[in-house]
Structures are given as C-alpha cells and as structure tokens.
Amino acid sequence: MIKMDANRQAAALDALEALVGADGVTRDPAALAPFHSGVALPLGIIAPRDTEQLAKVLAVASEAGASLQPVCRAVAGQEVAARDKIILLDLGRMNEILEINENLAYCLVEPGVTFRQLSEQIGERGLKLWVDCPGEPDESVASAFLKRRVGYTPYADHYLMQCGLELMLADGRSVRTGMGAMPKSTCWQLFKFGYGPWIDGLFTQSDLGVVTKLGLWLMPQPPAAQSFAVTVPDEDDLGKLLDVLGPLKTNMVVPNGVAVANALHEAARSGKVRRDFGGTGPMSAGEVRKAGESIGLGYWTLYGSLYGLPDNVRIAWSMVQDAFASIKGSRVLAAPAAGMEGLWAWRKGMMLGSVGNALGRPSAWAGGSSLDIGPISPVDGKEGLRLYDLSRDISGRHGFDFVGETNAVWRSAQHRQYLCFDGSPAGSKRARDCAIELIDAQAGAGFGQTHVEPALAASARATYESGAITQLHARVKRALDPANLFLSA
C-alpha cells in the first residue's frame, strides 16, 4: 500500500477547500468515522459540484502532490472505506439524470445518481422501464458498474448493460468511450464498442481515472412475470440447489440474477439479529436451521423469476416447479410463507424492477459493521458446496457466523460473504485477519475474489498477480496516471 505524506495531504486539503468552498469539504472526525478502513480515518472528503470544478480539483491536488480516492457517493454504509490518511474525492454532488429514453430503454446519468433517484424519476414520468438494483437503493448507479456488482432482474449484469462512459483522466482531460468518441454520434448509449480497442473495462475496480457520465441499458417492463422462491431444509442442500439451477441458467429458462441466501442472511434481511436467538459464538447447523424456520424458511433459499408472454411464463413455471421438486424436502413458493412476508415483498420487488429497502442489513446481524469478501465459483453443486464448507469452517474458527448470499447471473456464482462485528478496533482486526485467511484459502482452492474492500485489496491482488499481468497493469498506470493522483477504492 502506498503510504501518504499526511502533511502534504493536509496542505492539499486546505487548497482544495479554498477552491470548492467549505460546503464541499468534510473534515470533522465524527463525520469521517463511518469511512474508517480498519487502518486509519480518511483525512477529509472533497466534493466538487460539476466537471469544471472537478478538473480544477485534480489540477490543484496534482500540483500539491496529493493523492485522491474517488468514490461515486461518500455515504456511510455504502461500501466506502478509505485508504490510509487519504482524501476521498466524492462525486455525490454530481447527481443529474441527463437522459432517460423509454423507446430505446437506456439512461445517461452522472456518478452521484442513486438507484432510488432513477427509479423515482421513472415512476414520476410513468415510463414502463425497470431499474435493476443490487440491493441498496441509495447506492450510486455508476458505482454498481464500477464495482461490477450484480442485481436481481435479467439485467443483473451491470457491466454488460453499461453502454458508453465519459471519463476524466488525471491530467483533467475528458474522454468519451465507444460511439461517444465520434462527434454527433447517434448511438453512444446504443452500441458499446465504437471503433478500435474497447477501454471501458479499464476503469472498473481501477485507479486510472474518474467516471463523470455513465450510460446504462434499462429493462422494458415485460407483459408477464412469475417470481418464486425455493427453500430447502439442510445445510448440504446448497449443492442440490445449484445443480438444479445450473441448466436452468445456461439455457436461459430462469433469466434473472438468481439469489441463493443462507438462513442467517435472510434473518438479517428480515430485521433479526444474532442476540434474538440466544447463545454465543458461531451458531451450529441446528441453530441456523431454527433461525430460518423463525421466518418460514429452510437452511437455504433461492429466489428467481420468469418473464415474457403469459403463455411462455406458464410453461417455464411448470418446468421450474418440476425441476426443484426433485430436491427432497424442498418447497417451491409462489407466495410468501408465514413469517417471511416482509422479506418476500422486498425480494419480489427487486426481481420486478422496483427499488426498496429491506427490513434489515446483513451487517446488523452481529454488531452493525461488516467486512465483506466476494469469491466466485461455477454454478455447480460440488464446487459451490466446497467453497461454502471451506468458508464456514474458517469463519467459525475466528468466531464468526457464516452470513452469505450467492448471485448466479450467467455461468458463475458470485458469493458475498459478510464478517459481522461490533465496529470496535478489536472486532475490526479479527474480521480483517479472518478475511485475509479466507482470501488466501479460497484462492488456494481455485476460488478468486471478484470484489473486496480497500483494506483487503492487497491480499486479493496478490492471489492474481503474475509477472505478466502485474507489468501490464503497471504500464497502463504509468501511462495514464504517472504521479499516482488516483488510488483505487
């Protein structure tokens, strides 16, 4: 990790405040505390109002020899954790929805626009378009793309659904990608590639530039839909769920971003916490099962949805029911079981393009804070169960319950595992030690990370690094940002 010169950073923050005004700078330690990285507080937050001011911020920071960590929205609880003594570059005040096109089903937004804001404007205008939200309505639309997050509708793959970027490089130059690079283009948000190398991916999970505009395809409202849940009673039923799901995903029978969550994740999403179930330490399999039963569910629950013409949906629904009925003890639900009404409303809404709040957050399960990791596996029962067993055992040795959700979009399953703790320094260290062991062990078993928090970036990067890819990344960084103005989030 690059160590910051605190005095230089502080002097840069003073110069930046003179540029953007006091209302665009946050210095109060209490206000900065939610962005604690597990190592140190950020030094401050700078929030430009527009691209003109952003260019000036980059020039001043560069002249002062400072480094910035860009984030689309510096909001507590929205996956923003600062690097050591860094200045956060908050793009949240750049929050204009520039275009929503109903006929061609796309939008063009600035980086501060949230899923809630986009959904509300679509609703106010009566447009028959759906928004795919990865889970938190006040998350930035651009951030979900940059972090390669996935959602719950057939448009769940935000990386695939993105079309066209406007970027600002470290030297203040503005660049449009894809068809946007051509003056008077009529297809910036319609054709992803333009002519020549496609560079959009360079700016996801990277430190090469700042996104100032994002194009995203939106899903037209279908004629019919059928949402469902499949809940199974036993811990090793996860493998059976994934084995049945795999062919349904590969053949596009179930086209949405399917979620498979364990009982503790769903209990947390229902507003329950660890202390509601008594006892201490990691819960046994029997206790996890009882937690699921308290909200009408089994050990694992899968959420999917079907879309299209009414007759086609009916045919697919019959196929889905028959397929999952093959799992002993499974229940295939088209309506909520007793105890899961609030959870069902949120889950179904997410699969049908609405944006809403769950009753609870996974991090609230045990103390209100969490450190999250994101390994990936095939949509395959044996591999998914192997990853789960490994992760559960390591988490338990460190004193953590396994709290997790898996999202199957195409042929892979992206797992999100939460290490929940009370926010104390001791809890933070315990979570970090556990996360590093998980990352190393998962990599050793063939499961790489798709996303981690900044405090874990070095550990995740080390599992991928080889001489060739490391040199390539370094060469691109030297070409675009030789002074290390940007540090990755």
From TrEMBL:
GO terms for molecular function: 4-cresol dehydrogenase (hydroxylating) activity; D-lactate dehydrogenase (cytochrome) activity; D-lactate dehydrogenase (NAD+) activity; FAD binding. The keyword Flavoprotein applies. Pfam families: FAD_binding_4. GO terms for biological process: lactate catabolic process. It is an enzyme of class 1 (oxidoreductase). SUPFAM superfamilies: FAD-binding/transporter-associated domain-like, FAD-linked oxidases, C-terminal domain. InterPro entries: Cytok_DH_C_sf, FAD-bd_PCMH, FAD-bd_PCMH-like_sf, FAD-bd_PCMH_sub1, FAD-bd_PCMH_sub2, FAD-linked_Oxase-like_C, Oxid_FAD_bind_N. Its EC number is 1.17.9.1. The keyword Flavoprotein applies. Residues 38-221 form the FAD-binding PCMH-type domain. Keywords: FAD, Flavoprotein, Oxidoreductase. This is 4-cresol dehydrogenase (Hydroxylating).
